[in-house]
Amino acid sequence: MRLSQYFLPVMRENPSEAQVASHRLMLRAGMIRQSSAGIYSWLPLGLRVLKRVERIVREEQDRAGAQEILMPTIQPAELWRESGRWEDYGKEMLRIRDRHDREMLYGPTNEEQVTEIVRASIKSYRDLPKNLYHIQWKFRDELRPRFGVMRGREFLMKDAYSFDLDQKGAKHSYNKMFFAYLRTFARMGLNAIPMRAETGPIGGDLSHEFIVLSETGESEVFCDPLWLETDILSSEVDYASDLEPLFRQWTALYAATDEKHDPATSPLPPDKLVTARGIEVGQTFYFGTKYSRPMGAFVTLADGESIPIEMGSYGIGVSRLVGALIEANHDEDGIIWPQSVAPFALGLIDLRPSDARCRALAEDLYGKLLAAGVEVLYDDREESPGAKFATMDLIGLPRQAIVGPRGAAAERVELKDRRTGARSELSLEAAIGQLALRP
Ligand code: 5CA
Asked: How many angstroms separate the alpha carbon of residue 332 from the centre of ligand 1?
């Protein structure tokens, strides 16, 4: 993509309404534009990151055996009357009426909708287990939308729903999502710590919040320092095996949100405990028959007995993750994207497009990198070098290739690593070789 043609409305000044780094940097880097409180449009650069995050989430859901569907954003009130949540859910739920005066709502979550789908077509124990998920916009009329996409009113969530015959099966489904979550966040370079949590309006008694430690997090959390050194990607997770021993092993290390933490019963004394703030990027719930029983989602066993389906639900804040990723990856100059979610792998800067040799070398490199499948954002504009460097650092592409008049004369390119600042000068061929090798 040529920057001269790209829609990238960067801002030089810090927007006054933004209190945290991620919100500030998303606005400044032209990733989002506010529509109204807690509601945003995603501009090209932001949307690319959102799609990258979505892709990792999808791959790990699929790998764990969940199947993707797509449910609507607008749901009928009747379904929520069946579960009792039409009355119970507070003002966060946006209730609306259609032209026939029928009551509807903009979904804050989809337990009822998915239970309706399953009860209509799953009748026999032989049809279970199933896990269905979708990645869809939600609306919650939050009292205090803030921190940009981190606490929005309209936000993108991945929500999965598991359906099992008995508690043992349901726990296995829960465990699969538990490890899928650890893998998902780790692939984005995030250490999300699972913490025993309250279940709130979703219900049930087993729940974990997956929390990324960050000063700007909304919750206070407590955990064993060993959590800071764990790496799930180094262990093989076989979803077909019994995951309970692995689950026990992973949850043996202490971690709790302030709602669950009790200094009196904590296994670690205060001086051995990490006390920090954290961002909740996902939450898992096991709630048994809370929805299936009142909504009549039953299956028939071999002996003819009819029983309610055991259920769990599993959410990931896809749009919140974009903010959380920036909170974890930035410096005073801007964002530093981890490779796996970067909107482009490389920023190519032509320092002097008016110089024919410089331009020819940059164009040559651009064409060859595209042909090698590297996603490149090519700054081909007539701008000062300072402005170009500032923009590239702000938008945070992991690597930069810089072509200047001096290097061009020698057919050499400078490579810069955005995170470490390390620079090296290479021949055009060597640079292409290095860059094309990158995932
Ligand atoms: N039905 C369940 C699981 S599918 C559910 O709704 N869980 S939740 O309420 O915990 O939401 C799932 C995830 O969505 C949260 O962990 C959080 O990362 C994200 N989320 C929740 N509220 C917001 C919000 N206002 N803005 C951005 N992300 C949010």
From this structure: 30
Span 374-418, pLDDT tens digits: 999 999 999 999 999 999 999 999 999 999 999 999 999 999 999
In sequence order, the β-bridge partners of residue 16 are: none
- Let me know: does 55 contact 187? Beta carbons within 8 Å: no
Could you tell me the pLDDT band of residue 235, with boundaries at 50, 70 and 90? confident
Residue 202 in this model has a pLDDT that exceeds 90: no
Ligand 1 centroid – CA 316 distance (Å): 6
Reference 60, options 159, 187, 162, 174; nearest CA is 187
Locate the ligand 1 atom nearest the alpha carbon of residue 142 and give its number: 25
Q: How far is the CA of 315 from the centre of ligand 1 (A)?
A: 6
Does the model's pTM come out above 0.90?
Answer: yes
Nearest CA to ligand 1 atom 22: 151
- Which of 187, 262, 191 is closest to 226 using CA atoms? 191
Contact 164, 217 (CB under 8 A): no
Q: Report how far apart, in Å, the C-alpha atoms of 117 and of each of 66, 122, 371, 399 are.
A: 15, 9, 45, 46
318-328 and 21-28 are packed helices; what angle lies between their axes, rounded to 10 degrees? Answer: 100
- Taking Cα atoms as reference points, which of 75, 106, 82, 104 lies closest to residue 93? 106
Q: Is 147 in the pocket of ligand 1 (CB under 6 A)?
A: no
Q: Which atom of ligand 1 is nearest to the CA of 281?
A: 18
280 lines ligand 1 (CB under 6 A): yes
- pLDDT over 90, % of the chain: 91
Closest CA to 346 of 328, 330, 362: 362
- Give the model confidence (pLDDT) of 342-354 as tens digits: 999 999 999 999 9
Q: How far is the CA of 109 from the centre of ligand 1 (A)?
A: 8
Beta-carbon contacts of residue 236 (< 8 Å; ≥ 6 apart): none
Element (H, E) at 363: helix 356-371
Atom 3 of ligand 1, nearest CA residue: 315
Determine whether the shortest distance from the Cβ of 313 to ligand 1 is under 6 A: yes
